[in-house]
Design brief:
Blueprint: H1 7-10, H2 17-24, H3 31-43, H4 51-78, H5 85-113, H6 121-155, H7 160-163, H8 166-183, H9 185-189, E1 191-197, E2 203-212, H10 216-254, H11 266-309, H12 315-344, H13 348-359, H14 366-369, H15 372-380, H16 382-386, H17 399-411
Antiparallel strand pairs: 1-2
Helix pairs in contact: 4-5, 4-12, 5-6, 5-8, 5-12, 6-8, 6-10, 10-11, 11-12
């Protein structure tokens, strides 16, 4: 993001002070044109050459992301049964994504349209920096907390009754946001409004930019620390957790249904078989979660690390950095838009609630509920909705299977 870049140093402002002073010594009627020329030479063009294609891409992401996240929040808030621990994490994640889409993206588009002067002043610069830092940290921590919750649900289902409660989820979410707010302060404090000055010490208002004001080494240290703690470590944790989940589900897949014994009815055996197949699908979805998370956030942190480690900038490096910066912005906002698709739309219950919410404004939902597509969804999810909580199962059936069959009905949560 633009707020993370020290444009003044990247553009070589410190090396052009002599040219600036000599050119602006003229106090005649041509001084205004001289100022514009200096601003162009030192700060670069006001409008980014990527403005049109990137803005169109952002517009598509904005519409998709805002609609998806608003639907997510509305569905969870409107339906009591949807307020499960898992969905509370999804609600928090959706709020984080909405903040960056509604407040961050417009500022980003404006910066590309008019890089300077920054119109919101010192307070606006602090708000912009603080917002981006906070939502970045909150998104990563929310995804990590959700992954831990899924790990407990699948691998240690007996603990779900004590750990996976709405009260516990609210405490974790509150902690996530408090930690994110606190960790956003260091980088925010390093930024402010940068001005160019005339030889008579008069600042040029047209040169105002929200940029880095403190020493670069402090900024580099902050970036490197936050990248480790808010990308590499969470990514490692998520990958390990999902690997364990996948191995656990594969072991259940290999457990022969025939070993359930004669005391286990055919109906129960078939339900367990269907549940096993469903978990295999979940394993594939978990792999998608990890890959998408890594892809969307890797360019963003690459952008920050490039700026942090490169000390001598050449024209080639500058050009490469510009492309990386644009790509990182697109993927950054894409992560906010794709989350509802990955974490919510892959859940049958969310799909049902989405359809109910959308169709409620178009008339009666009776015909919709009787449609073949809707009936197919209900049939495909009958296992979760109708498995009895206290179903009699042989003692030698794996404990994890028993816990899953009862827990999913009782807690009414869904995987992701």
């Amino acid at each position: 993001e633009d707020l993370f870049q020290n444009y003044s140093e990247l553009s070589g402002i410190s090396g052009n002070t002599t040219i600036l002073n000599s050119t602006l010594n003229d106090t005649g009627p041509h001084q205004h044109f001289a100022i514009e020329e200096i601003l162009l030479n030192v700060l670069g063009p006001k409008r980014s050459s990527f403005f049109l294609p990137v803005s169109l891409t952002y517009l598509l992401i904005f519409i998709t992301g805002v609609a998806g996240n608003l639907l997510t929040c509305t569905v969870i808030a409107k339906h009591q049964k949807m307020r499960t621990p898992t969905n509370l994490y999804l609600f928090s994640l959706a709020i984080s994504d909405l903040l960056v889409l509604l407040f961050g993206m417009p500022l980003e588009i404006y910066d590309m349209w008019q890089n300077y002067p920054f119109p919101l002043g010192e307070g606006g610069c602090y708000f912009k920096t603080f917002l981006f830092e906070t939502v970045c940290f909150a998104s990563v921590l929310n995804v990590t907390a959700l992954s831990v919750e899924r790990y407990i649900a699948v691998v240690h289902p007996l603990k779900t009754k004590y750990v996976m409660t709405n009260t516990h989820a609210r405490r974790v979410i509150t902690t996530v946001w408090v930690v994110s707010l606190i960790c956003a302060i260091p980088n925010t404090s390093l930024h402010g409004i940068y001005y160019l000055y005339l030889p008579n010490k008069e600042k040029i208002p047209e040169s105002a930019m929200c940029s880095l004001l403190k020493p670069t080494w402090i900024y580099n240290l902050v970036i490197q620390i936050t990248t480790v703690f808010f990308y590499f470590i969470p990514m490692t944790i998520i990958s390990v957790l999902y690997l364990i989940i996948g191995c656990h589900l594969n072991r259940e897949k290999k457990f022969p249904i025939g070993k359930l014994g004669k005391n286990c009815s055919t109906k129960t055996s078939w339900k367990i078989h269907l549940e096993s197949g469903r978990r295999r699908q979940i394993t594939k979805m978990l792999a998608v979660v990890v890959v998408v998370f890594a892809i969307c956030w890797a360019p963003f942190h690459t952008d920050r690390l490039l700026w942090s480690f490169i000390t001598q900038w050449t024209d080639v490096m500058h050009t490469v950095f510009q492309y990386v910066h644009v790509i990182s912005g697109v993927f950054f906002y894409l992560s906010a838009a794709v989350n509802p698709i990955i974490y919510n739309l892959l859940s049958t219950r969310f799909r049902e609630r989405f359809r109910e919410l959308v169709c409620s404004n178009q008339g009666s939902t009776a015909s919709h509920n009787n449609s073949p597509a809707f009936s197919k969804i209900l049939k495909s999810t009958s296992l979760i909705y109708h498995v009895p909580v206290k179903q009699e199962v042989p003692k030698y059936l794996q404990p994890s299977m028993i816990s899953h069959l009862s827990w999913e009905h009782e807690d009414e949560t869904t995987y992701m």
